[in-house]
């Protein structure tokens, strides 16, 4: 298996992040994944990648803690090699409630993770990738959601708003670093079959998707893989929707 360089993935222990880590590792990338409270889950992913012939390591890092993000990049690069890419995957849905019923502290936590944390982590990636800052260039992929365009499921308007911010950030950062050898894009999944989605929700939402089903984590991961690859060398500032037509 040809090694293609290091990709750091925040929140890579479960769901879409896990699928991204396995897909990239299978394609020859070295991957570093993060966890906040579940080291056993993250280490299981690392073991599965190693058993398949890939190279991976898990790090504890919370995107709401800038010092932990700085340490993540330093440690991963020191231990696994030069950075090629970064996948901004860590995120939360927040409290499911109408905007009028949302508590300020819950909104602050949601924004701290999905927006502020994502901006800080991407900024740290730029420090290591930018040719202007001594890097060799590379790729950043932010994980958004079709909620950014559709407004979100009932009670998840605040979550949708954070993903809208991510898509604006993707375009702006892409413009900012395009001449520094860094491409920045986003993937916007539709509802995807993870442990966070009940069978009832999957069936209900699937009825309204033109393709008649919700997505698989591996389908989202394939889109990330494409955007990281040289096949997407002239693509930046773009959000790729993977939603079965929704």
UniProtKB/TrEMBL annotation:
<dbReference type="InterPro" id="IPR002347">
    <property type="entry name" value="SDR_fam"/>
</dbReference>
<keyword id="KW-0560">Oxidoreductase</keyword>
<dbReference type="InterPro" id="IPR020904">
    <property type="entry name" value="Sc_DH/Rdtase_CS"/>
</dbReference>
<dbReference type="Pfam" id="PF13561">
    <property type="entry name" value="adh_short_C2"/>
</dbReference>
<dbReference type="GO" id="GO:0016491">
    <property type="term" value="F:oxidoreductase activity"/>
</dbReference>
<feature type="domain" description="Ketoreductase">
    <location>
        <begin position="5"/>
        <end position="200"/>
    </location>
</feature>
<dbReference type="InterPro" id="IPR057326">
    <property type="entry name" value="KR_dom"/>
</dbReference>
<dbReference type="InterPro" id="IPR036291">
    <property type="entry name" value="NAD(P)-bd_dom_sf"/>
</dbReference>
<protein>
    <submittedName>
        <fullName>Sugar dehydrogenase</fullName>
    </submittedName>
</protein>
<comment type="similarity">
    <text>Belongs to the short-chain dehydrogenases/reductases (SDR) family.</text>
</comment>
């Amino acid at each position: 298996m040809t090694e293609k360089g290091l990709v750091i993935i925040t929140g890579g222990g479960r769901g879409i992040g896990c699928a991204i880590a396995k897909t990239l590792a299978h394609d020859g990338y070295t991957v570093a994944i993060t966890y906040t409270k579940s080291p056993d889950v993250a280490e299981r992913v690392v073991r599965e990648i190693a058993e398949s012939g890939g190279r991976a390591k898990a790090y504890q890092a919370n995107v709401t803690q800038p010092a932990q993000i700085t340490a993540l990049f330093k440690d991963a690069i020191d231990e696994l090699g030069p950075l090629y890419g970064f996948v901004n995957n860590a995120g939360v849905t927040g409290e499911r409630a109408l905007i009028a019923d949302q508590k300020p502290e819950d909104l602050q936590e949601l924004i701290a993770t999905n927006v502020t944390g994502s901006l800080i982590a991407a900024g740290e990636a730029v420090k290591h990738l930018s040719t202007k800052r001594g890097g060799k260039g590379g790729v950043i992929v932010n994980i958004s959601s079709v909620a950014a365009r559709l407004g979100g499921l009932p009670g998840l308007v605040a979550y949708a708003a954070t993903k809208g911010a991510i898509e604006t950030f993707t375009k702006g950062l892409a413009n900012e670093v395009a001449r520094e050898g860094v491409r920045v894009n986003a993937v916007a999944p539709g509802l995807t079959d993870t442990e966070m989605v009940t069978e009832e929700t999957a069936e209900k939402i699937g009825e309204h998707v033109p393709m008649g089903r919700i997505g698989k984590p591996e389908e989202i991961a394939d889109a990330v893989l494409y955007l990281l690859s040289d096949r997407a060398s002239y693509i930046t500032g773009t959000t790729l929707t993977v939603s079965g037509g929704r």
